[in-house]
Design a protein that fits this description.
The structure holds 2 protein chains of 2 kinds. By secondary structure, chain A is of the alpha+beta class. Chain A contains 1 helix and 4 strands; from the N terminus they run αββββ. Chain A folds into 2 domains: 9-45; 50-93, Rubrerythrin, domain 2 (Single Sheet). Chain A has one helix spanning 13-44; strands at 50-55, 61-65, 75-79, 86-93. Chain B is an alpha/beta fold. Chain B has 2 domains: 46-201, no CATH class; 206-374, PAC-like subunit (Rossmann fold). The chains are: A alpha+beta, B alpha/beta.
């Protein structure tokens, strides 16, 4: 096949290029597809939840994993690690939001 | 050595006459040209259907995950052997909205239908659990979880319907429409699956920022009066702040609940009439792409979502008594609104409280009465 402006040394050479390009494109498409699925699976997992405890006496903040039954304002019965005072749940949140969409 | 020859083991001798393949290649190109003209759309339809097949598969996985998580949680508390049977019935239930051809009185009808639906839904969840030791707030949270699972099921069914319709009719356009909406559908499904996790754990969701703000607003102030069930599922607190009577309205927590803040505001204003000088509503709002999560904005009007019944009541009553209605919103995406509250959202409550303080100071005088309403789901927030 004659392509204007392109001199081919060999009739078969452009087919070689086509084949190589096709393979590269297929690999990229596969990688992109996999990335999309990984991203999708990441969104389907439950996020990590943190509970922020605050000492009623000294205001010291401590973060631990969320326990079932925690709610904001709950007096946990756990002692403050700094002064031994009573603590309450100040906030409950997920620290890193995997849900954040690109903006 | 040439790659093609290596891969295909060389071309047949008949094609190597003169070492020139122009005729073969040109014929192939012309054939390809006609194939694409006559079958191009069909080929594209098959490609779209392949892609949609993956989307449907992903939706199905999410639907099953949501269902399994919900059932696991219900089974943990349930004493009913027919739990799964009731769950399957509830998940397929529906609501028929009132006729709107004659819109007069539609809000009342809509509220009635939604009240029936909620009562029936809660009763069904109670039947599923059949355990008197489970608290009312836990039942409400679990009913929210079942609702999120229902939404996942519905999304899957609608997407599957259009996928099969496109396949059955070989319609490129139906498939293309579904393909265009697929990213949004997947994004909604992810949001609902995250909502299932949030309600399963009983942790606050992004939409709970309104109740969280009012909870923190009153936490360091002396509550003068407190009515837990001022109206259905809604609490009213009265505090004395900056020599003003501040009425705090929020849904009753810490179970998953949105309450009837419109009804509560209406009741307070009907009782206090023109003594109420200002209503401030705090709610989560959907951000536009490009806006940052947790951005706070101020405006006027009723900051409340839902089907519009509560919004209507608030607008009606503040208009009747000519009371200014202010809104403070915290922006987030839909996914963030119905999944576990992120740190970015939770940490803005202090800034919102400062704004509430400023608005009260600027817009009212000592001795006035103000309503501050925290709108949203109270899961994990008492």
């Amino acid at each position: 096949m004659n392509i204007p402006g392109v001199i081919l040394q060999n009739n078969m050479q452009w087919l070689d290029y086509l084949l190589i390009i096709s393979i590269v494109v297929a690999i990229f498409a596969f990688m992109l597809g996999n990335r999309g699925m990984r991203r999708a699976n990441q969104f389907s997992r439950p996020p990590e939840i943190h509970t922020e405890l605050v000492c009623s006496d000294c205001g010291f903040k401590e973060i631990r994993r969320f326990k079932e039954g925690d709610y904001i304002g709950l007096e946990t019965g756990e002692k403050c690690k700094k002064c031994g005072g009573p603590t309450f749940v100040n906030l409950i949140y997920t620290p890193t939001s995997p849900l954040e969409e690109k903006s | 050595m040439e790659l093609v020859s290596l891969v295909f083991g060389g071309l047949p001798p008949a094609l190597q006459i003169g070492g020139d393949y122009n005729l073969l290649i040109q014929t192939l190109y012309i054939l390809l040209f006609f194939v694409l003209i006559f079958f191009g759309q069909r080929i594209q339809l098959q490609l779209i259907l392949m892609e949609l097949g993956n989307v449907i598969g992903h939706l199905d996985r999410m639907r099953r995950m949501g269902r399994e998580e919900a059932l696991k949680k219900l089974k943990h508390y349930s004493k009913n052997s027919q739990l799964e049977e009731i769950f399957n019935r509830v998940i397929e239930s529906f609501v028929i909205f009132p006729e709107s051809m004659d819109p007069s009185g539609i809000i009342r009808k809509l509220e009635h239908i939604m009240d029936i639906r909620e009562t029936r839904f809660i009763n069904d969840v109670k039947k599923m659990i059949n355990n008197d030791e489970v608290s009312e707030s836990m039942i409400k949270t679990m009913s929210n979880m079942v609702e999120a699972s229902m939404a996942l099921n519905m999304l899957y069914k609608i997407a599957l319907h259009y996928y099969l319709l496109a396949k059955k009719t070989n319609s490129y356009f139906i498939a293309a429409q579904l393909q265009m909406q697929a990213p949004l559908i997947i994004s909604f499904a992810r949001a609902y699956l995250q909502a299932v996790y949030a309600f399963r754990d009983g942790a606050p969701v992004g939409d709970g920022i309104g109740p969280l703000v009012v909870n923190k607003f009153m936490s360091d102030k002396k509550v003068v009066k407190k009515k837990e069930d001022y109206v259905k599922d809604t609490s009213l607190y009265e505090i004395d702040y900056m020599n003003r009577r501040v009425f705090i309205v929020k849904a009753k927590g810490p179970g998953g609940n949105v309450g009837k803040p419109g009804e509560a505001i209406k009741k307070v204003i009907t009782r206090m009439k023109k003594d109420i000088k200002l209503v401030i509503m705090i709610d989560a709002a959907l951000k536009l792409e490009g806006e940052k999560t947790g951005t706070i904005a101020e405006g006027v009007g009723a900051a409340i979502g839902g089907i519009g019944v509560e919004k209507f009541k608030i607008e009606e009553i503040v208009t009747k008594y000519n009371i200014p209605l202010y809104a403070i919103i915290i922006k987030m995406s839909l996914i963030e609104a119905i999944s576990i509250m992120s740190k970015k959202i939770a940490s803005v409550y202090d800034d919102v409280i400062k704004r509430v303080d400023r608005v009260i100071k600027e817009e009212t005088n000592e001795g006035d009465a103000v309503i501050v309403a925290g709108i949203g789901n109270t899961v994990g927030i008492p």
